Description:
Layout: E1 4-6, E2 10-16, H1 21-26, E3 36-42, H2 45-58, E4 61-68, E5 84-90, H3 93-109, E6 113-115, E7 123-129, H4 134-140, E8 147-153, H5 155-168, E9 172-177, E10 186-192, H6 194-213
Amino acid sequence: MTLEPILPKILSVRRIHAAHPSVLAAYNADPARHTSLGLVTCDQDDSTYVALDEATKHADVDVVFARSFYAGAGNASGRLSGEILGVIAGSNPDDIEEGLAALVRCLEHDACFYSADARGEIVVFPHVISSLGHYLSKEAGLEPGQSMAYLVAPPIEATIALDAALKAADVRAVRIFPPPTETNFAAAWLTGTLNQCEAAAEAFAEAVVEIGFNPRDDRRRSW
């Protein structure tokens, strides 16, 4: 199965060095430890969550703020808003630069959604993180370094595909996000060995594609 990648669009990347303590506190940074912030907006929220986690593996930074915007990038509040604002914090500007560089690399070369049908009307995110960083491991209740399948699709596709993924691989669900998420999708985080996470992600993607071709399951019954 070959899926067509939909590359994320990085809309803005900015830094605030020597940030005001009130700004640091408002965005959940610790003024006693953090002095600088790195900010990014993107048109794909889940790809950005993965990229933020990647930043923590390459730099001494913390993800202090990451939030999806309601109804997705198609309903953004402005040209640079996209679907998410992510903020990393560090004790010096060099750490922020290293973190942002890793984040951008991940968005440009690794994490992305895929088109699951010929018209590009159904998308899927069957991403496998081979080694979690400090951000998503904490969010998932796992240890850094563990593998995780990060699976996202529209509501009915995700529900059926999650069931398929859990049956196809020796994995366990650590978090399930029923619909609607802020962007009206559904998602799940599964963990296991890297091979099993990859098998689960493949089964998830295959199920989403199959539903796109046969949304009413007309092979079994006609209405």
